[in-house]
Specification:
The chain is mostly helical. Helix content is 73%, strand content 0%. The chain has nine helices and no strands.
């Protein structure tokens, strides 16, 4: 029978302590919201899913590292944990903004509102815990043993997540050629970026029969140009000759298009930074 080894550093190191805090905080957040019974809307479902998902995966990570079972897994553990911590940071940050904006009304009074306010505060602390984990596990300059822990790798997760937010805001009635091109830009870049993340975690990039680092630089440059066109075309087609309607509720199309505009700019900046860092990693070598 195989002997199980217990690695206490999994919970006593700074990264382990940070993960323990994230587990406790996410558990408190979804427990408080569950006690209110007010999370049935799509926004509430998203918030509950975020806290439960991050709680479950972080707990699983702690368990596998505590018993040192992760080396038996058929994928890159460092890349997986780096990608997840970045994803959890983004998801919890979004939830910490969406939940109070959707469910907490002003003035805030009563036990239910108090629990929602505490859940929001705990969620913000959970975001800080995951952000700290990203900082603690980020690769040092010159260390590329785990690609997704480098700045370009973390940016890949950010780019894919922002694209997902864009898809959530898109409407199905974009019939003009310029808007269809923008949707194509979001879709193509998302698919390629997601494949890069999956292949990196699955240790499949080494089988690509070409200089992969230079291909990634070329892809980042192409994605930057594509997002630059979307940054110009999306607001041009959606806002020319239009002002915000007076009766613009939570599902207002004008607000959604504005949100997509800002998210497009965020991804444009992300691809620009990604291109700069990946170019430095490939073409500018540190002196021996």
């Amino acid at each position: 029978m195989a002997r199980v080894t217990v690695n206490l550093r999994a919970v006593t190191s700074w990264v382990g302590i940070t993960r323990l805090f994230a587990v406790v905080l996410s558990c408190i957040a979804f427990s408080l919201v569950a006690s209110t019974g007010d999370f049935g809307s799509p926004y509430g479902t998203w918030c509950m899913f975020t806290w439960c998902f991050c709680f479950a995966i972080t707990l699983l990570v702690l368990f596998l590292e505590l018993l040192e079972l992760y080396p038996k897994l058929p994928f890159s553990w460092d890349d997986f944990t780096s990608a997840f911590s970045m994803l959890a940071t983004l998801m919890v940050f979004t939830t910490s903004v969406v939940f109070p904006a959707t469910f907490i009304s002003s003035p805030c009074s009563g036990s239910k509102c108090a629990r929602q306010a505490v859940a929001t505060t705990v969620s913000c602390l959970c975001f800080l815990a995951y952000a700290l984990e990203v900082g603690l596990t980020r690769a040092k300059p010159g260390d590329i043993s785990s690609f997704l822990s480098t700045v370009p790798g973390l940016l890949k997760v950010f780019e894919a997540y922002v694209a997902c937010l864009i898809f959530c805001l898109l409407d199905a009635d974009s019939t003009e050629a310029g808007l269809q091109w923008c949707v194509a830009v979001y879709s193509i870049c998302f698919i390629i970026t997601l494949l890069i993340i999956i292949f990196t975690i699955g240790r499949c990039l080494s089988y690509v029969p070409c200089p992969l680092e230079k291909v990634l630089v070329g892809y980042n440059a192409l994605a930057l140009v594509m997002y630059l066109t979307a940054t110009v075309l999306w607001p041009l087609y959606n806002f020319r000759g239009q002002s915000r309607p007076a009766s613009c509720d939570r599902d207002c199309k004008w607000d959604k298009n504005l949100g997509i505009t800002f998210l497009t700019i965020f991804n444009l900046i992300a691809y620009l930074v990604d291109l700069v860092y990946s170019t430095r990693m490939v073409f500018i070598r540190a002196p021996p």
